[in-house]
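Severity: low
Component: inverse-folding endpoint
Summary: output formatting inconsistent between runs
Steps to reproduce: submit the following structure tokens with default settings.
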């Protein structure tokens, strides 16, 4: 299976799983607060829907996307919060239908991107497969917020390989976003997949190494758990420092406090 086909299939399955979770809750619980300050479950789904629409715009109308991105750079947080708030006032059934439509549109739009063609995105143009991986990242991150609000354990699958790879590839971005100079040499990252398979990235002889469960690494790079509450081990000063601020997405994030969700990720083993 081609890389893009694989990512899109996993993106669809991850979306369906979260859909099944939220479709089964009582309408009143859509207003339950999540760990993201001021955001309810409805805000989280509204954000997923609006960001899917943004990705569709990038893949289908680069000029319109560029104009929209210029607006976002003025105050990314305010625009994002406003879009989520607008969606959150919709009746749950309507919001769910809108999100389903947006998810389907992303899959169609990215599947139609010609091989080798880059798609404009927030920081730099990316491949359709990478953009699909960012959509899966959003599902994992915001899905975790929703699961935390509902008190539901995450049961990760090997679909998270795309997010794990993205988390490694965006190492330098996390440094630059904080005004830091990235290390010149690659790190070695070895992660145990939910299936038990070993996923390895970077040179095996690197003195800077990170090891642990892939699910924990994904919770780290989506900033949904503090490193102190994860089973990740780092060798080397640079690798240890990176785990304090690793993130696989654009935009600021306060992350989670140590102990804030201790034990809540027990299903992510």
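Observed output (run 2 of 3):
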């Amino acid at each position: 299976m081609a890389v893009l086909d694989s990512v899109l299939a996993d993106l669809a399955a991850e979306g369906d799983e979260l859909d099944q979770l939220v479709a089964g809750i009582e309408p009143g619980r859509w207003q339950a607060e999540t760990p993201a300050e001021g955001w309810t479950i409805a805000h989280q789904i509204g954000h997923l829907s609006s960001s899917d629409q943004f990705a569709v715009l990038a893949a289908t109308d680069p000029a319109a996307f560029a104009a929209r991105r210029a607006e976002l750079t003025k105050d990314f947080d305010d625009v994002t919060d406003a879009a989520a708030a607008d969606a959150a006032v919709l009746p749950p059934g309507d919001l769910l239908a809108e999100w389903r439509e947006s998810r389907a549109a992303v899959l169609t739009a990215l599947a139609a991107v010609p091989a080798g063609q880059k798609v404009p995105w927030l920081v730099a143009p990316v491949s359709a497969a990478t953009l699909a991986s960012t959509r899966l990242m959003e599902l994992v991150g915001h899905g975790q917020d929703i699961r935390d609000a509902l008190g539901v354990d995450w049961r990760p699958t090997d679909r998270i390989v795309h997010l794990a790879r993205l988390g490694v590839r965006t190492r330098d971005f996390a440094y630059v976003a904080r005004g830091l100079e990235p290390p010149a040499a690659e790190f070695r990252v070895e992660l145990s997949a939910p299936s038990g398979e070993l996923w390895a990235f970077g040179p095996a002889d690197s003195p800077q190494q990170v090891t642990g469960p892939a699910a924990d690494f994904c919770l780290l790079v989506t900033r949904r758990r503090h490193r102190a509450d994860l089973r990740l081990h780092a060798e080397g000063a640079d690798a240890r420092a990176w785990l304090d601020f690793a993130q696989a997405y654009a935009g600021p994030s306060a992350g989670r406090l140590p102990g804030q969700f201790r034990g809540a990720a027990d299903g992510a083993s």
